[in-house]
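Sat 14:20. Reprocessing the chain from the morning session after the first attempt stalled halfway. Input below, unchanged.
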Amino acid sequence: MDILIADDHNVVISGLMGALERSFDGASFSVAHDSAEVFRLLNQKSDYDLALVDLKMPGMDGFDFLRRLFAEFPALKVAVISGVDDPCSIKKAIALGAGGFIPKSVSEETLINAVRLVLRGDIYLPTHVLKADSESNSDQVIPDSAIDVKNAYQLLTERQREIMLLLGEGRSNKDIARHLDLSENTIKVHVSGILRALNLRNRTQAGVIGEKMRRIISLNEPSV
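Finished this time. Tokens:
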């Protein structure tokens, strides 16, 4: 497994490499100390299995760096690992395309679990963000005309579509997690991503749209 680590502190790099070597046999590493070096390495080799990148490195604003990174290398799996762990920054990084946001303060076990999640295409968020994103108890439902269901479907990732359709069946997060063989926390992360992508306020709204998506699919409309 080939991993790109980007951080301007050698102590952090050494710690990450040691932890990853202990958990992933045969892992190999490339190292960048600033944003320019990241792009130089990726232009030489773009098929890394994972990039672990600090949000604050010399040469570029962190979010501008992520925007360019995903614009130029959209297939790259990226996890941000940072000393910054405020919910706003974390959610912004995920919205830009990061598969996870790992605070530097986490334990080695949490780091490895987060990396495994990102490698298999799921999303990792720290616990305090999951708690802050707990689902609203509001039962307010948006009117039928407030969202284009077909367009909404196209805005979602493949995994989010799966979850959206299961929400449309009225399933709980626990049921969805069992059905997809994922953790309940992972489902919560994906539901939060769905709400952000479709500009919905709560899980109830997502369930209504998911049910409409199911009906459209059952009618075999080719655009969904």
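The first helix runs from residue 10 to 23.
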